[in-house]
TrEMBL record:
Signal peptide: none
Organism: Limimaricola pyoseonensis
Keyword annotations: Hydrolase
Gene3D superfamilies in the record: Cell wall hydrolase SleB, domain 1 (1.10.10.2520)
GO molecular function, one term: hydrolase activity
Keyword field contains RNA-binding: no
Annotated region (Disordered), positions in chain: 142-162
Pfam families xref list: Hydrolase_2 (PF07486)
Domain Cell wall hydrolase SleB residues, every copy: 44-139
Lineage, uppermost ranks: Bacteria, Pseudomonadati, Pseudomonadota, Alphaproteobacteria, Rhodobacterales
Protein name in the entry: Cell Wall Hydrolase
């Protein structure tokens, strides 16, 4: 089988079941919705916007891909299957994704490029937490001596416009 045909077949298999046709690329809107849906869908608008803020912080960082889809589709960075699992209709997710792509950011995320479930306790000394919202704790990686908030703060909601 010719290499080009093998590549096309591999792409079709990789995208199978995700609702993405193998002959088109996902839009920034769709990729942002997928990150929000699979990381914070059952939470609040604040949680959705905070996840989107992290995606945009990564896009702006030279340490990560420079597109929304590049960031969201990075292996082992977001929920397993983020680019291939099916999503139900979620108007709040769609609205929050569009708002973040227009420039809205969660006011307390700051420069955070990482988050984890709020219930998880990591044993690292370089995690400076900025906010806990939507069931996730958001943090910046810093030199240990620059960490002033080494544990997630209490959850806060209702800071982003409805």
């Amino acid at each position: 089988m010719p290499p080009a045909l093998l590549l096309l077949l591999a792409a079709a298999l990789a995208l199978g079941g995700c609702g993405l046709r193998p002959d088109r690329r996902a839009s920034a809107q769709e990729c942002m919705e997928r990150a929000m849906y699979f990381e914070s869908f059952r939470s609040s608008r604040d949680g959705l916007v905070a996840v989107g803020s992290v995606v945009m912080n990564r896009v702006a960082s030279p340490a990560f891909p420079d597109t929304v889809c590049g960031v969201v589709s990075q292996p082992n960075q977001f929920a397993s299957g983020v680019m291939r699992n099916e999503m139900r209709d979620a108007p709040l997710v769609r609205e929050a994704a569009a708002a973040v792509l227009r420039g809205e950011r969660h006011p307390l995320v700051g420069g955070a490029e990482f988050f984890h479930a709020a219930s998880y306790r990591a044993g690292y000394d370089n995690m400076h937490y900025t906010v806990t919202t939507g069931g996730n704790a958001f943090y910046e990686r810093r030199r240990p001596e620059q960490v002033t908030r080494p544990v997630p703060p209490p959850p806060v909601e209702g800071l982003t416009p409805a």
